[in-house]
Amino acid sequence: MSTDPTPEQLATRQTVMAAVRELDGATVRDALLQVLLTSGVDATVTEVVMPVLRDVGDGWERGELGVLHEHFVSSSFRGVLGELRMPVQGERVRTAVLACPPRELHDLPLELFGAMLHARWWRVVSLGANTPMTAIGEAVRFLDADACVLAGVRRSAFESRTSSLAVLSQRVPLFLAGEGALALTSSPPGTTVLPRDLRAAADLVDAVAAPAQAAAPVPEGLHRHRSGDRNEPAVG
User: Fold for domain 94-206?
Assistant: First the structure.
């Protein structure tokens, strides 16, 4: 399901990377909001943001970038994500709970995935990194969630919690994401491991619970634009 980036998306990557090197948050924000307007959430995440995160990580490994650049890019991307989080309205709004299990600290990719679900008219409740399993279960019950996505980079994050995951999956469709989930020899009972392809993963979660109403609810403050055969929220 992956596609080749457009010239605009490639240029935005270069602009954002240059801004990250200079710690220029305003340029990062403006570049991302512009590509969101023209390309939509899915393409911005998969063709711009994730490649930039990989480039920053590679730059750190080569000694060209420092820890400050990693923290800066994370903070900048989270700020843009916050601007996208408009309330979703409708008679039957689907709710997804997103979290990283205990001792899992890399929650930014999960936040980006949440933005892709939001573009599919989901209410996304993110609990963040290092979340106790009891807290995840309480959130699922309190919100009467339609789906739950847990992400981790370590296989042990899931293997050591097989029984907890099995119990949680009896209450809500439960998805596991990240390299830790993909490294599992078999998925815990009742769970679904999401693929690396973020578009395919978002579509898989989206297919779990179709909205009850004929027309999807529109997040307040956003309008729709055509993206292929789908409607996506556009900034503006």
Answer: Rossmann fold (3.40.50)
